[in-house]
C-alpha cells in the first residue's frame, strides 16, 4: 500500500499558511512589547488611557482576525453562492470607500514619517543613535507602518467587509419573495427550507463575526472618547499635534472611523428589518390564496416566527438604537471619568499648596518670634531671665 504524497500545490498552501501564522505572531509580539513599554511613560490622563485602549483593541482584533481568517474566507464563499441582482453603483461606492480608507492610512503614515521621525518614544524603544540617520529612518518607517497599515487598517477593512456582507444578505432577503412567492401556487416545503437556510446563514454569520463587532464597537468608543477629550482639553490635544496637516488627518481619521461604524450598524440592523418584512410578505401571500388556513399553512407560519438578528458578541442585538446607546454611554462615562481625574488633580494641587502655605507660615512665625524676643531683651526682667538661663 503506497503512502499518499502531498502535491506541490498543497505543500505550498501549507507553507503559506504557517508563514502567515508566524508573521502574524511576530506582529502581535512586537505590538505587545510596544504597548508594555509605552505604558510606563503614560500618566493617568484621559488621552493616555484612550491611547492604551486603542492599542489593546487593535491587538485583540488582529489576534482574532488571524485565528478566524479562513472562516472569513468561507463566509465570502457562502455569500457568493447566493444569486442576486447587484447594482453596479453599489460596487463603485464600496470600491471608492476602500480606496479612501486606505489612502487615509497611507497619508497618516507619510505625515508621521515626516513630522515624527524624532519621536522620543521610538528612539527610546529601539535605542536609536543620532549618527545613524538612514537606519533611524528605516526603523521609524517600520514602526509607523506597523501601526498604520498592519494594525489600524485591518479594522477599517473589516468594517467595510462586514457592511458588504450585511448589504449582500439584505439583498438576498429582499429578492426572496420575487423568486419563491410568485404565481398562484406556493411550495411550502421548498419555501420553508429556503427560509431555514437563510436563518441558519444569519446565525452562522453572527457566530463568526459577533466578536469582531465587539472590537469595532470598542474602537468606535475610543473615537468618541477622542472627540470628548478634544472638546474638554482642546489645548492639550492641539499641542500634541505636529502641524496643521497632522490635525487635519486626525480629524479625517475620526470622521472615517465614525462613518464606518455608523454604516456597519445600519447595515446590520437592516438584516432584522428585511427578515421581518419577508415574514410579513409570506403571510400576505398565503392569506391571499385562501382565507382559511389549513393545518399545513398554520404549521408553516409557526415555523417562520423566528427572528434573525445580528448581535454584538451575543450580548446585544444590533438595531438602529444601538448606535445611540453606544454614543450616549461612552460620552456620559468619559465626561464623568474626566471630571474625576480633574478633581483628583485639584486635590493634589490643593494638598501641595496647603503644605507650602503651612511651611511658609511656620518660617514666618519663627522670624517673628525671634524679632519679638530681641525687643523684649530691653526689659530688665527678661534680661535677668536670659542671664539666669545662660
Automatic annotation (TrEMBL):
UniProt entry tagged with the keyword Membrane: yes
Keywords attached to this entry: Membrane, Transmembrane, Transmembrane helix
Keyword Transmembrane assigned: yes
Transmembrane intervals: 21-40, 46-65, 92-115, 141-165, 209-232, 252-275, 322-341
Domain of life where this protein originates: Eukaryota
Name recorded for this polypeptide: Gustatory receptor
Organism name: Oedothorax gibbosus
Amino acid at each position: 500500500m503506497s503512502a499518499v504524497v502531498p502535491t506541490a500545490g498543497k505543500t505550498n498552501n501549507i507553507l503559506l499558511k504557517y508563514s502567515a501564522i508566524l508573521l502574524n505572531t511576530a506582529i502581535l509580539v512586537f505590538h505587545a512589547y510596544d504597548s508594555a513599554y509605552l505604558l510606563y511613560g503614560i500618566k493617568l490622563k484621559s488621552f493616555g488611557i484612550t491611547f492604551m485602549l486603542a492599542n489593546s483593541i487593535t491587538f485583540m482584533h488582529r489576534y482574532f482576525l488571524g485565528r478566524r481568517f479562513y472562516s472569513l474566507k468561507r463566509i465570502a464563499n457562502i455569500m457568493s453562492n447566493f444569486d442576486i441582482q447587484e447594482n453596479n453603483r453599489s460596487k463603485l461606492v464600496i470600491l471608492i470607500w476602500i480606496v479612501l480608507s486606505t489612502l487615509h492610512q497611507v497619508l497618516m503614515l507619510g505625515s508621521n514619517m515626516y513630522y515624527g521621525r524624532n519621536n522620543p518614544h521610538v528612539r527610546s524603544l529601539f535605542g536609536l543613535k543620532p549618527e545613524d540617520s538612514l537606519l533611524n529612518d528605516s526603523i521609524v518607517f517600520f514602526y509607523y507602518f506597523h501601526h498604520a497599515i498592519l494594525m489600524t487598517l485591518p479594522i477599517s477593512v473589516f468594517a467595510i467587509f462586514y457592511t458588504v456582507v450585511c448589504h449582500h444578505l439584505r439583498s438576498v432577503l429582499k429578492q426572496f419573495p420575487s423568486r419563491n412567492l410568485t404565481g398562484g401556487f406556493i411550495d411550502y416545503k421548498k419555501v420553508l427550507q429556503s427560509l431555514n437556510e437563510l436563518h441558519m446563514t444569519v446565525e452562522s454569520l453572527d457566530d463568526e463575526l459577533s466578536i469582531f463587532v465587539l472590537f469595532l464597537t470598542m474602537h468606535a468608543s475610543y473615537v468618541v472618547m477622542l472627540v470628548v477629550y478634544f472638546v474638554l482639553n482642546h489645548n492639550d490635544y492641539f499641542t500634541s499635534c505636529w502641524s496643521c496637516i497632522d490635525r487635519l488627518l486626525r480629524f479625517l481619521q475620526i470622521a472615517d472611523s465614525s462613518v464606518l461604524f455608523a454604516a456597519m450598524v445600519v447595515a446590520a440592523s437592516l438584516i432584522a428589518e428585511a427578515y421581518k418584512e419577508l415574514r410579513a410578505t409570506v403571510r400576505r401571500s398565503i392569506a391571499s390564496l385562501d382565507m382559511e388556513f389549513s393545518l399545513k399553512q398554520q404549521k408553516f407560519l409557526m415555523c417562520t416566527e423566528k427572528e434573525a438578528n445580528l448581535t454584538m458578541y451575543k450580548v446585544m442585538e444590533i438595531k438602529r438604537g444601538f448606535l445611540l446607546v453606544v454614543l450616549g454611554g461612552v460620552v456620559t462615562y468619559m465626561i464623568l471619568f474626566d471630571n474625576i481625574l480633574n478633581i483628583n488633580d485639584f486635590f493634589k494641587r490643593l494638598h501641595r499648596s496647603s503644605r507650602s502655605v503651612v511651611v511658609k507660615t511656620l518660617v514666618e512665625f519663627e522670624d517673628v518670634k525671634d524679632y519679638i524676643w530681641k525687643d523684649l531683651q530691653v526689659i530688665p526682667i527678661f534680661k535677668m531671665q536670659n542671664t539666669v538661663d545662660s
